[in-house]
């Protein structure tokens, strides 16, 4: 079965898919041809802002025994870490700014403020995730190998612990990302694909963790002298802020209603146009102001990011206008919604899929019936009938 056989795309002819692919290719060509100094200044300004926030947070923590300064230091560091990981590190390592030929802002040289080695992240994320987006068995982002995020995944009694596993993943998100490129499934089943490679990668992760945790929990607290403990707790709070925020943003783009998963069979003979279709159906956006999008690494435009992961993130708003126009013209889904709503849908799905498929289906049917009952209670009889038919 090809990607074009999916219900949402069944109305498209082969010619439609080819034309659609060409339209998306044209968007890429237009943006690449128009990149210039304004784009370069954007990323440089974001980096300057992030570094100033980081310095301000460190300075504030020299007064960390004073509660307002502790809170200010933790908050400033938390925001600085979010900016560095999301709008800067994530996008720089995607190669979005390689065209500038600036060795300090280049995917080959950037090492981010995270316990995950950049080299491993670029393989698990840039290659595996963005090539095999939402493909079960290929994309490790489908449940991060610990969560069941689709009913197509076989249920196991261990899935009953999903609410707990999910909470731990949220609180320790950078550590979850750090082991993302390791063969965890092979380790659990005592069947490593390449034991030597696993050992080498594990050692690399260990070195990066020692570096990051030594900096956050030993070096910088020591610099504040007698305020070591209060600075240490503030640094822990900053990492927690970054972890929870990053988790929420990333899950909103992959697991709310409307973001679909695929099988390996659907990749067979996949054309460029069909690849674009898979990105459309496998991603979800959320709405928000400019500051919200900057703080989210521009992943409120997750659809545009999956379509064009190596184009500058500051161009996603204008790209989104063209993408939505294409979706309207070809009658294609474009999943978006307010951030709180998208986040709730993601969490609800993870909780529900902790149950076997039959229980999950029964709960979903009960939820839909309750929604129809409430709707019929607040609408006219004819409108209620129409709603039931539509459902």
Helix tally equals 16
Report on the biggest sheet: none
- Our measurement of the CA-to-CA distance between the termini, rounded to an integer number of angstroms, reads 27 Å
- The sequence of SSEs as H and E is HHHHHHHHHHHHHHHH
Report the β-strand fraction as a percent range. Answer: under 5%
The count of β-strands is 0
What is the 3D form? globular
The helicity comes to 55-70%
Radius of gyration: 23 Å
What structural category do the secondary elements indicate?
Answer: mainly alpha
- On the 0-100 scale, what is the average pLDDT? 88
| Uncertain residue segments | 374-391
What this model shows, in words?
With 391 residues, this protein is mainly α. It has 16 helices and no strands. It has helices at residues 14-34, 37-60, 67-93, 118-131, 162-171, 173-178, 184-188, 195-223, 228-252, 272-281, 290-295, 302-307, 316-330, 339-352, 357-377, 381-390. The model is unreliable at 374-391 (pLDDT under 50).
Keywords:
single chain; 391 residues; 62% helix; 0% strand; globular
Short account of what is shown:
With 391 residues, this protein is mostly helical. Helices cover 62% and strands 0% of the residues. The longest helix is centred in the middle third of the chain and has 29 residues, at 195-223.
Topology:
Layout: H1 14-34, H2 37-60, H3 67-93, H4 118-131, H5 162-171, H6 173-178, H7 184-188, H8 195-223, H9 228-252, H10 272-281, H11 290-295, H12 302-307, H13 316-330, H14 339-352, H15 357-377, H16 381-390
